[in-house]
Design the sequence.
């Protein structure tokens, strides 16, 4: 499979192209990705050749090669290289392979944050083998990122070396300069190697190139080399054995001509400290001038200390500097540091760069900005803008707190400024570096001394006076206009307020009248709506009552008549006397039915006979319903019967009638027991038979035309009571109704005038019908 067959092809859209042709182009564009998904990439170069979109398709990968880099701090990730190239494996588990292991890695392609790699890997060690031959490349090629993941060989001069470590491992890190570029290389420490002995040496490093990048933009930032062994760093030309023993070079001679210097040579200088920026720069001064020493050392020194430094001479922005330097403090006593009194003309000629100088000028302005925390802890920078000989320069001082001394110097003052002069040159096309500007770094705030304070007639004061006079004139004019128009304005305001008040009163009166009219209208509408709702509820209540009355009286009485007629028919030929008795009972039931129907039509709520109490009424009603069915009736009264409301007595009577009717029609019982329990809080009616029973969950109901049990429940709920129906096949049926005797929902707690409950005593009655 060649790379050409797996790369995605994109065709420009052709205006007016038919839809079928566009579809064909889409299929052709997507075909390579589909082809990749059905094939396995078997070498590193095939993975690296994928585009980012193709690599995100999780294309299967199976690569066999040698592990070239697996640093302890990578948490299991490593580079593997075969004959076609090297590729990164995103493996984050332990154990992981080590450099020199021959492994087979299977997984899926991944776009990575810079170059494609292998994700979701599984690896198997096949053995060990030599590392691939390192490919010699230039530093420019290395820093381009084109060799990411490949084992390469690069040469350069070591500018710094340090032993760095973390809990996962210790490595020697060196910074190498070559052809104007700098890169870092890491390799394991060796017991026989002092890292500082490499500084200044020309080395050749064999290792795996690994790019550092901006993952969000997929942009390369820098490249580092990782050598798996200490012998992968080959010293081609050793550094000077003792650079501090080399002859001293004057500070102004570091950038001067030197005959046949060795590559990457270092120079040895000595001077008095004028200013230190910890971890960044150290400024030295001797009799020849000043020099900026760039160093990462943070050893504290103070102005006046005499130090020696060794570093690499370089040119930065057309000006000399000593890079990657190390320094040490000498035993000489601290020197008395005096600035060099100079002029702007000398500075514009390039003299006194990085030297401690003194300039006189006039303070034009100042600014205070926050620069963020630095190595020295400084977070506030105070900048003075000063003019000297028609040239403007700035003096800067960084402090951790607001600098009240510098900000308190009056603008316009003549000041003497002592500081480190930093020249700024520009390329004017002649490659000579013409001085464009300069600035001074203030070692202390008191290096600015006021020589002459500004006179009172400063531009600021004149401007303030002019502004004050103009303000006074404007106030006077405004006061005059205000006084002249005050009366007319007040009169106009009074008239407007009176008119507004009159209009507001009229609007208030109209609004009040409309509110009254609307309130009356709403009252009428609400009254009519409430009356309509009450009428509707009354109709529904009356319909429900009539339905229950018809069921509890007329239907039950008709059922009793039908039963008596059946007995008459059966006994007429055999026992005329018994038939006559049942016929008489049927006539009595007919009369009762007429009376009940008459009471229902006229909305009567009284009981059938005022002399009946609840117990007698229940016995009489049940006797009429059962007739000569042979069912034995047992009654029991517990507690002292108290006065019950007509509604409670009537509903309990109807419930008892319905229960007796159901027993005769469905139960086939031989005994019916009626119990009445009277307490001050409630009355309990319990009716039990020994019939064949039923399953309450599967029994027939209103859907089948049977409303008896539903009527019992509804009556009980309307009185605020509870009903419990217990039954099981061949276990009889028990109905227990508990009704509170206290008034609920506005019902009367006493019986109707003229009615009295017949007294009864505790006991039981048994009767055979």
Sequence:
């Amino acid at each position: 499979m060649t790379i050409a067959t797996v790369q995605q092809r994109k065709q420009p859209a052709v205006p007016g192209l038919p839809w079928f042709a566009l579809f064909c182009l889409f299929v052709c564009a997507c075909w390579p990705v589909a082809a990749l998904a059905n094939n396995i990439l078997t070498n590193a170069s095939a993975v690296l050749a994928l585009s980012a979109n193709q690599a995100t398709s999780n294309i299967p990968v199976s690569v066999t090669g040698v592990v070239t880099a697996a640093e302890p701090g990578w948490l299991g990730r490593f580079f593997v290289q075969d004959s076609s190239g090297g590729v990164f494996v995103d493996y984050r588990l332990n154990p992981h392979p080590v450099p020199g292991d021959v492994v087979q890695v299977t997984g899926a392609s991944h776009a990575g944050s810079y170059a494609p790699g292998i994700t979701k890997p599984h690896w198997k060690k096949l053995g060990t083998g030599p590392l691939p031959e390192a490919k010699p490349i230039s530093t420019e090629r290395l820093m381009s990122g084109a060799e990411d993941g490949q084992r390469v060989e690069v040469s350069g001069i070591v500018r710094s070396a340090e032993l760095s470590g973390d809990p996962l491992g210790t490595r020697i890190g060196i910074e190498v300069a070559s052809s104007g570029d700098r890169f870092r290389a890491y390799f394991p420490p060796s017991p026989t190697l002092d890292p500082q002995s490499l500084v200044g040496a020309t080395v050749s490093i064999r290792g795996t190139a690994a790019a550092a990048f901006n993952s969000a933009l997929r942009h390369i930032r820098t490249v580092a080399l990782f050598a798996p062994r200490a012998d992968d760093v080959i010293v081609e030309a050793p550094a000077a054995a003792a650079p501090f023993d080399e002859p001293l070079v004057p500070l102004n001679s570091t950038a001067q001509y030197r005959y046949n210097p060795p590559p990457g040579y270092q120079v040895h200088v000595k001077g008095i400290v004028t200013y230190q920026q910890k971890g960044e720069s150290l400024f030295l001064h001797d009799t020849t001038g000043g020099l900026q020493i760039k160093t990462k050392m943070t050893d504290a020194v103070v102005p006046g200390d005499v130090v020696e430094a060794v570093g690499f001479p370089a040119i930065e922005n057309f000006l000399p500097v000593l890079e990657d330097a190390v320094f040490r403090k000498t035993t000489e006593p601290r020197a008395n540091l005096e600035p060099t009194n100079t002029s702007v003309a000398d500075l514009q000629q390039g003299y006194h760069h990085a030297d401690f100088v003194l300039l006189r000028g006039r303070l034009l302005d100042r600014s205070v900005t926050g620069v963020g925390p630095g190595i020295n802890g400084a977070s506030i920078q105070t900048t003075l803008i000063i003019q000297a000989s028609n040239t403007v320069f700035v003096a800067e001082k960084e402090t951790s707190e607001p600098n009240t001394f510098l900000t308190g110097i009056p603008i316009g003052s003549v000041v003497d400024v002592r500081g480190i002069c930093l020249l700024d040159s520009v390329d004017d096309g002649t490659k000579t570096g013409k001085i464009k500007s300069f600035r001074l770094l203030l070692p202390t705030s008191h290096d600015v001394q006021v020589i002459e304070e500004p006179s009172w007639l400063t531009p600021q004061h004149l401007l303030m006076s002019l502004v004050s006079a103009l303000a006074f004139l404007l106030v006077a004019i405004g006061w005059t206009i205000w006084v002249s128009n005050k009366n007319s304005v007040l009169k106009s305001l009074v008239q407007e307020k009176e008119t507004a008040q009159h209009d507001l009163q009229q609007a208030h009166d109209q609004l009040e009248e409309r509110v009254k009219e609307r309130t009356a209208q709403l009252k009428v509408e609400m009254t009519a709506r409430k009356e309509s709702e009450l009428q509707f509820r009354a109709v529904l209540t009356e319909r429900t009552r009539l339905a229950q009355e018809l069921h509890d009286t007329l239907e039950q009485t008709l059922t009793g008549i039908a039963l008596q007629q059946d007995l008459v028919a059966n006994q007429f030929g055999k026992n005329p006397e018994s038939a006559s008795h049942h016929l008489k009972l049927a006539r009595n039931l007919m009369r009762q039915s007429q009376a009940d129907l008459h009471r229902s039509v006229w909305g009567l709520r009284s009981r059938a006979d005022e002399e009946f109490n609840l117990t007698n009424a229940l016995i009489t009603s049940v006797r009429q319903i059962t007739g000569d069915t042979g069912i034995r009736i047992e009654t029991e009264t517990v507690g002292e019967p108290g006065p019950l409301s007509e509604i409670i007595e009537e509903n309990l009577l109807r419930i008892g009638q319905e229960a007796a009717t159901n027993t005769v029609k469905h139960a086939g019982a031989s005994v019916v027991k009626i119990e009445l329990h009277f307490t001050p809080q409630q009355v309990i009616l319990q009716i039990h038979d020994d019939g064949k029973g039923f399953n309450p969950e599967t029994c027939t109901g209103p859907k089948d035309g049977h409303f008896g049990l539903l009527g019992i429940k509804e009556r009980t709920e309307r009185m605020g009571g509870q009903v419990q129906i217990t039954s099981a096949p061949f276990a009889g049926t028990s109905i227990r109704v508990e009704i509170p005797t206290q008034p609920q929902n506005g019902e009367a707690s006493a019986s109707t005038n003229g009615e009295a409950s017949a007294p009864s005593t505790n006991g039981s009655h048994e009767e055979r019908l």
